[in-house]
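One-letter codes give the sequence; each number marks local geometry. A record appears below:


***
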Amino acid sequence: MNQPNLQSVDWSAISAPEDDGAAAHLTGARMPDITLPATDGSEVALGRLNGWSVLFFYPMTGRPDQPLPDGWDQIPGARGCTPQSCAFRDLSRDLADCGVSSLYGISTQTTAYQREAAERLHLPFPLLSDADLALAEALSLPTLQVEGMVLIKRLTLILRDDRIEKVFYPVFPPDRNAGDVLAYLRAQ
């Protein structure tokens, strides 16, 4: 079932992901010295981030004029990239007020593909492309395969400098993830 509005999702009709333990090893890990291209034209060296950083990973963004992969809504945790990105957009100032100096969305889609979503959604932060899976492989991130694509399962990392301090996995529903991140940071 493809829903024409990518921002409005009936979460009760979507399969929730279960914690399969695939992200349990991430807390306390250091970010590898990997540089990813960003939709704003910059290159981001993830192992050199300073202060608080939030990295939210999502399988893929859809486009209003293109169908989602067959069965997308039946894949637990797949649906919700646009609502998640919009929630981070809407709370980006609050996150900055809590000391977040870097906020990035990351998927395996190309930078050119992601640029459309960043512009359409008016995101005040860049999206990063891990199209060659360098970061996913270096961190052993949980992935899934859909129609020949390797996609990163939805998770969010909070970093202090280059160390992963907190992992949100699985993330469901995605539109509440930014609020959960903000609550965590306010408690620190």
